[in-house]
Amino acid sequence: MAEDDRGYPVEPNLLISFLFFNNERALFGLLTEIDGTEVHLRADQLLQSFSAVHPYVAFEGLTNDDNQQLLSVREAAEAWTDADLWNFAEMDGTSILINAEKAGISEEAAMLISLAVRGKIAESAIHPDQISALLPHLRKYGWPGETVSAMPIRVAFRLTEPELDSDNEWLLETVIFGERGAHWTPAVRKLNASAIDALPAKWKPYAAEVVMKQSEMASFLSSIDVEVGESFLSVPMSDPEVRNFIKDDLPLFQSFGYPVILPAWLKSVTESKIRVRTNAGVQSYKSATGLDEVLSFDWNFSLAGKNIDQETFRKLVDENREYIRSGDEWFHIDPLWLRKIRDLMDQADAGEWTVKDLLFQDVPEEIIPLEEDEEMDDPLFQFSMQQSLRGYMEMLSDKKGLPPAGVSKDLKTELRPYQEDGYNWLVFMRDNQFGACLADDMGLGKTVQLISYLLNIHSRSDTESPSLIVCPTSVLGNWQKEIERFAPTLSIHTHYGPTRAKDEQFITLIDQLKPDVVLTTYGTASQDGEMLAETEFASITLDEAQNIKNMQTKQSRVIRKLRGKHHIALTGTPIENRLSELWAIFDFIHKGYFGNFRNFTDDFIIPIERDDSEADKRKLRAKIRPFLLRRTKSDPDLQLNLPKKLEQNEYCPLTTEQAALYESFLDETKFKLQTLNGFEKKGLILKMLSRLKQLCNHPALFLKEPHTPAAEMLTRSSKLKRIVTMAAEIAGNQEQCIIFTQYIGMGQLIRHCLSELHGIDVPFLTGSMPKGQRDRLVEAFQEKEFPIFILSLKAGGTGLNLTGANHVLHADRWWNPAVENQATDRAYRIGQTKFVHVHKFVTIGTIEEKIDKMLVEKAALSADLIQSSQWLTELSDTELDDLLSFNN
């Protein structure tokens, strides 16, 4: 890109006109690639552009680095047009490199020239085997077709076919294009005369240049053995020689811009195609083992509408033919493409591909089934599948109709139909040794589907090692509670905390306990990764798998090295459009599927993110589809199976800091209670409960500390981290949520973290907010102007219509269930058309969990008994002792 001398950007098309002002062969840059304000040049185009000096335009660098690069470009451009340059060229395998020291140029200039040579060869029809033969030509004539001539005439070769019904041979001769395009050849009597004698008087001054150009072109003639002297070329050719000329020589002449005149009927040869059709099938369809069935293919070929047998096709490929004659017609075929198809046939007929390879697209793209909305105009290669195979493929792709795995009688809940489909799919993927990514929307029951799967595999006699679940610290307690609730027969070991067993202790403990499930956190797994990697687990599940999205972090690298017989990723966020995250997750669930990250970047990230390539998007979607199961709450098939409202507890552990403060405060309170009378005791209990609830939210609220950086605040409270993460995830899914809290400090803390960590500006409705502002915020939320709304329980618990939200988060528990329900009903009310998911955050082992259990028990009693929090002060001494105990 460039600026003019006044600092204004130079429009790309104008820049191209400056660079290609004398390059007719490049159509004066007409086909040059433009990207915004940038002009993209290959190295050879760059050198050509700077090999001639523009009469009115001068270039200089915008920076010192630019100037240094321009010096290298000019040096390389000058050398590029010097015939002596190629005397310092050397073969390196199938590449031509310039020896900078021998050529007397800089390494940078030599590198540019070598890149230019590589680019020129890549766009030419030169076969790698022919490159070494190109070097002598370069040394004598320079790069083919690059020399600029001031002659008003052009030298060409002409191939003339034999006259009909004659014994004459083909004729290859040199002709001259005149100024008006007429073809000139010497008279018969002057065929053996020197060019200077044979040429008309007006062209005699150009005789030496004409002879040189003819000699330059003739150096590429491999089909005939001929010596070119001072006279014009006129050589008879046999049919075999003509075939070789058309197959081997003609592509080189055309690549290098040397004009060749062919018979008129040969001009249409490139319009002819060989067409290949194949139909794939398998011998049998066993639902459990069908993926291992070997594909069988039948092959059909046609040329210009006429069928060709397989033997003839293979012969064409073996002879490396590019131009062939059938009857009275000539046809052009692409030998590289034919070789590719022949190799594909050999692989297919050797039984290298199974239904599994076809499903996961580990096959050449020619035989990948098209998506329904894809069309190919007039394809050269047509792939089809037998109807029975197509039906089987659709079953596997859609994950419906899979063999039932049988739900364990030990599962203490009933799976919804779509959950049973997900469970069957997880078991199917395990049995066929494929990783799986279960990416259902939040609230659709990924946890219970995984628990059903764990019951299945740990009821098998061949399962000897435990399954590992790695999750964020904030949901560790949730997993423990959910497994105990839905699968009490599964034994659990929690590998977490400063007193956890390590190294030999861990191995001994696992041997003794023989747990079915080991629960740990990402942080712990990262620290103990080397130790955990020594065990091959029955399965490894990553919950909130997006935690390994940054593949360069230690946490991601360590966790991707863990070993399990089956790897599963659970995530509630769509991963199809987060490409680096997608690679990291797939590197865990099915290692090697996408190769290394650099290959994935080249194959998908660059073409999709930079070029917005629809073809590559389709290809990527097709490749991840078999490994990914994602259902959303908006799916009409699922909506029928969902309740209008789902309430669930989100269990969070205390951090070490919170636990120490909690125990210390309990001891202090118990001592005070022993010294107080009945009335004073009730007051202290209520005050203590409020303080403990604040501590369960965050120690900074309990200690009355100011806010520190958000990332630091999250480390001190698993509950806060879980709330912030969940709210950001909801917003990221284009959904809305309302968050209720009793404490102004907690609302401000959540708001601070969402703003600083996720860039989400969250309003906080409190009792002090004027009615006008309050109404405007409610209206804006309903109009989807912002995704998250924080409300104090007293100010926002009644009188508001917030049906825009389909998630309700209760950050802290109110001891009066009716107050909580009224708050929930801000979203779950008439006018709500979406499924509402209510999340109640409970810290494990604390008063929050204990009171939650009491509320469940007392719900069966008289409603007015628990209409206020006063019932807490009426607890018996035994109940109070239990309430004031801490189960860490």
UniProtKB/TrEMBL annotation:
UniProt cross-references to PROSITE patterns, sorted A to Z: HELICASE_ATP_BIND_1, HELICASE_CTER
Classification via InterPro entries: DUF3670, Helicase_ATP-bd, Helicase_C-like, P-loop_NTPase, SNF2-like_sf, SNF2/RAD54-like_C, SNF2_N, SNF2_RAD54_helicase_repair
Originating organism: Filibacter tadaridae
Domain Helicase C-terminal: 719-884
SMART domains the record matches: DEXDc, HELICc
Taxonomic lineage: Bacteria, Bacillati, Bacillota, Bacilli, Bacillales
Record has Hydrolase as a keyword: yes
Keyword annotations of the record: Hydrolase
Protein name per the record: RNA polymerase-associated protein RapA
Annotated GO MF terms: ATP binding; DNA translocase activity; hydrolase activity
